[in-house]
Fold this protein.
Amino acid sequence: MFVFKAAVVGAGTMGGEIAQVIASGDVPVVLKDVDRKFVDQGLDKAREVTQGQLGRLVKKEKLTQEQADAGVEEVLGRIHGTTDYDDFGDVDFVVEAVPERMEIKRSVFGELDAVTSGHAILASNTSSLSISEIAEATTRPDRVLGFHFFYPASMMRLIEVIEGADTSADTAQAAANFAQAIRKMPIRCAECPGFVGNRIANAAIAEVWRVQEEEDISVEELDKKLSESKALPMGPFFLADLLGLDTVLHVAEHLRESYGDRFYVSSKMKELVEAGNLGQKTGKGFYEHGN
Ligand SMILES: NC(=O)c1ccc[n+]([C@@H]2O[C@H](COP(=O)([O-])OP(=O)(O)OC[C@H]3O[C@@H](n4cnc5c(N)ncnc54)[C@H](O)[C@@H]3O)[C@@H](O)[C@H]2O)c1
């Protein structure tokens, strides 16, 4: 199946960049959120990322500034921001990137099932939730699967293609082909909590959350030591702020419920989320962020 037109639902931390990746792969894409403010933030993110990518080519003298400026408009011209489903009728592939809550995912998949044509593949960017359970909200579970980008989507090459209980082989193959068409590296995973990437990453990071709390080490100090050691590209608490503490917490809780206490849930993170401090997207998390 060829993807002539795609859609992304949810224009938050992931959605804006996912739309940018798809548009940079020459595929027109609809970017939908519930509020125009979030759509515009997603479009701004897509513009900033494209300007950065093409700006680097100008520095290397592979493009002139005029060519880069035209390239930015060309990529952004392929992204149509919206708050309704009017343009979903001829979409071939949807990536859902709404918050990591099963009830929200299921409600969005029910809507997508109603507004898209029967041949369209409905994919979830979920970090850990069951694809089979999401698919039950539709009348086409054979055309539902996980399509999991990593943060930041414009830079990270890996996409996990996750088959639910009813995902057809054709759907999984079409999704892997689409991932390659937008210049990503698909890996096929079976359905299990955390899939591959988050299960590995969380096993390691859980130890950092645990040591920080048990030893009462300052978050800043631990971040500094870990990034100076080059064990990680940046401090894990700062990274969690960028990823969104609500998302990181939901994934950690889901892994803990699924695999037991070899996974750890940071109580400090839980307190921050309960207080509405979700990291960079709300201006405060483990750190203050000047938004
Ligand atoms: N943040 C990460 O690092 C990361 C990485 C990989 C995967 N994911 C996954 O991607 C998904 C989205 O995560 P995020 O961090 O971008 O979340 P986010 O909270 O930053 O953004 C979610 C967006 O969805 C919108 N939304 C909510 N309900 C909606 C609806 N019914 N229709 C349309 N839009 C709706 C919100 O307004 C918000 O803009 C989650 O499943 C998460 O697990 C996140």
Notes: The longest strand covers residues 144-149. Residues 132 and 164 are 5 Å apart (CA to CA).
